[in-house]
Design brief:
Elements lengths: L3 E7 L7 E7 L2 E6 L6 H11 L7 E4 L6 H7 L13 H10 L4 H17 L5 H6 L8 H7 L7 E5 L7 H14 L4 E6 L11 E4 L15 E4 L1
Parallel strand pairs: 3-6, 3-7, 4-5, 5-6
Antiparallel strand pairs: 1-2, 1-8
Length: about 220
């Protein structure tokens, strides 16, 4: 199955200028905008829309090993993916709301094991090293087999990575596009230059898309 990502809306600062982003299967599109322009909100919005009747969608946040990254990775559990009834997803979100850090660490380890059991971890990479304890951006980009997804939205996937890890991550992302539609939201597009990815830049405020404004919307298929 091939996937696609389509966004149609308006920038908050330029209602007169429609904003259309389309990513087809086999393509990597890098959407570049500066910090604080709403990339994470866009990723979250797409995750809410990305409930295809079939196929697999990955939405993952920044690789800091933080609550933000973990909660983004939890979109793996949205129905109809690994948790058809949505019960585990709701329970985990409730526990993540707690200020106690221990449940978060336990849930991260649990989610990593679920990904492994679901066959989402690249077999060769799995043999090369042990599964990291917890969901982090580097885990997603270096261990998950992105080609097993139909669409992937990655929110600042290179943030916090070393130069060597960033190079590996770019290769992994671009290799995934042989099958998946991959959208990368980043404030650091330079590392993707020469990778074959299509780079588009958004003006300040455009990434927010004013999804609550009339005529805004998006879809993941």
């Amino acid at each position: 199955m091939s996937g696609s990502i389509v966004i149609s809306g308006y920038a908050e600062t330029r209602r007169d200028r429609p904003l259309d982003i389309s990513v087809s299967s086999g393509e990597v599109v890098v959407v570049a905008s500066g910090p604080g322009t709403g990339k994470s909100q866009l990723a979250s919005r797409l995750a809410g829309l990305g409930k295809p009747r079939s196929g697999k969608l990955l939405v993952c946040g920044a690789p800091a090993g933080s609550l933000e990254a973990m909660s983004s990775a939890l979109f793996l559990l949205q129905p109809p993916f690994l948790d058809p009834a949505g019960e585990v997803f709701r329970q985990i979100l409730n526990r993540l709301a707690s200020r106690d850090t221990r449940p978060r660490e336990e849930l991260a380890d649990l989610l990593a094991r679920w990904c492994d059991r679901a066959g989402l971890v690249d077999a060769a990479k799995r043999r090369a090293g042990s599964l990291p304890a917890g969901i982090r951006g580097e885990f997603v980009l270096s261990m998950l087999d992105l080609s097993k997804f139909d669409a992937a939205v990655l929110d600042d996937p290179l943030k916090g990575l070393s130069e060597t890890a960033a190079v590996r991550a770019v290769r992994s992302v671009c290799a995934a596009a042989s099958r998946a539609a991959v959208m990368v939201l980043t404030s650091d597009p330079v590392r993707f230059q020469g990778s074959g990815a299509r780079i588009m830049r958004l003006e300040p405020g455009a990434a927010r898309l004013a999804m609550r404004a009339e005529g805004a919307g998006g879809s993941v298929r």
